[in-house]
Amino acid sequence: MSKPKVVSLFSGCGGMDLGFKQAGYELVWANDFEKAACETYANNLGSHIVHGDITEIDLKKIPECDVMIGGFPCQDFSMIWKRGGLETDRGNLYKYFVKAVQYKKPKIFVAENVKGLLTANKGAAVKTITEDFARIGYKVSVDLYNFADYGVPQIRQRIFIVGVRNDLNWEFSKPLPTHDKSNYVSSGKALVGVKKVKLNNEHQNIAEKTIKMLNLIPEGGNFSDIPKNHPLYVKGMISHVYRRLDRKKPSTTIIAGGGGGTWGYHFEEPRPLTNRERARLFCYPDDFEFFGSITEVRKQIGNSVPPLAAKILAEAIAPAFKATSKLKAKTQLPKQNRSSTLISQTRLKAKAL
Ligand SMILES: C[S@@+](CC[C@H](N)C(=O)[O-])C[C@H]1O[C@@H](n2cnc3c(N)ncnc32)[C@H](O)[C@@H]1O
Fold first, then answer.
1. How many domains does the chain divide into?
2. Which of 49, 82, 116, 280 could form a disulfide with 41, with the two C-beta atoms 3.0–4.6 Å apart?
3. Is residue 201 classed as helix, strand or coil in its secondary structure?
4. Residues labelled catalytic
């Protein structure tokens, strides 16, 4: 059987794409508008990546595919549910993903997003998303994952929205976890031998004051461990700030941006993690080279789907490509019944972990 073909939107450096490739898929087209991310993608995954704004790309130029994947940017939540004319549509990147799916009609689509999407606009955003995809002919599942439950050495909660084209005789179910708290992969294990890796492993220069501060924070702790009467004490910050890894546990969520204090810090040495250490916490192979400045690479990694998580999802949907199509068998339901079936098949299975 030939490999299922993947078209990828909002591809970033290609974390999700790498997972699909590892699961035996063929990547045929990808797009992102960040130059450095495209450079990383092209050097590791292939020159099929097109650099440019998705809103300016002619959908006719996207090749045929079996599966479309992508992580539309999260800042669009406020716009997703808005119904309006073209003015509202412009810049609403989620709608471009819907349009692309509607135009290319892949058998399956997989969209990744942050947990916050489940509660955005008091649930209206996710409801609109499932309805929009149901309307264009897909059975939609929305599931929350903690990637640590699948062997990623990082507590990272994200959702996958999986759409299965209505005519396929196949139903998606969330893959069963492979790990739990008793056997999570720890950050200490993930970082074994990392010092020997040359690519993207440079240390950043940090202020003397930051080193002093980190020395006051124990392994696994954060800014709140600095004694209140200490001159370096800082108050009222989010838990990410000056968070040091605990080598016995998966890392906490590695984020893409944010100023001083949010870079993720080593458990033993008083310093921020290197990008290679971050890449290890996302399960990138050591020969996957990232391009761009330290900040750009941090963003690419922090934005990405851990390839291992994407691979597990890609394997879970693989049986769909062997499934028969009702369309081919000419057993399509009458139009009226079909739309009501669509709505009833739209499942919202997300539950907090
Ligand atoms: C969450 S990241 C995707 C990460 C990717 N799925 C991975 O696993 O590496 C979202 C990406 O959308 C890209 N993006 C945002 N707006 C875009 C636009 N208008 N056109 C193309 N790409 C865009 C960003 O540059 C970013 O890389």
1. 1
2. 49
3. coil
4. 74
CA of 89 to the centre of ligand 1 (A): 18
- pLDDT per position as a tens digit, 166-217: 999 999 999 999 999 999 999 999 999 999 999 999 999 999 999 999 999 9
pLDDT at residue 267 in the model: 98
In the predicted model, is pLDDT for residue 8 greater than 80? yes
pLDDT tens figures, 90-111: 457 888 999 999 999 999 999 9
CB of 12 within 6 A of ligand 1: the answer is: yes
Residue 145 CA, ligand 1 centroid: distance in Å? 20
Q: How far is CA 157 from the centre of its chain?
A: 10
Distance from residue 286's CA to the centre of ligand 1 (Å): 23
Q: Among 18, 33, 92, which residue has the most ligand 1 atoms within 8 Å of its CB, making it the best to mutate?
A: 33
Residue 173 CA to ligand 1 center (angstroms) comes to: 26
266 lies in some domain: no
Residue 297 lies in a domain: no
pLDDT tens digits, one per residue of 66-79: 999 998 886 556 55
Q: Is residue 241 part of a domain?
A: no
CB 115 within 8 A of CB 213: no
- For residue 89, give every residue at least 6 positions away whose Cβ sits within 8 Å of its Cβ, in sequence order, or none: 95
Banded model confidence at residue 120, pLDDT cuts 50, 70, 90: confident
CATH value at residue 144: 3.40.50.150
**Cβ of 292 below 6 Å from ligand 1:** no
Cα→Cα distances 92→32, 56, 190, 218, 222, Å: 15, 13, 37, 43, 36
Asked if residue 17 lies in contact with residue 11, where contact means CB atoms within 8 angstroms, the answer is: yes
Return the ligand 1 atom nearest residue 299 CA: 27
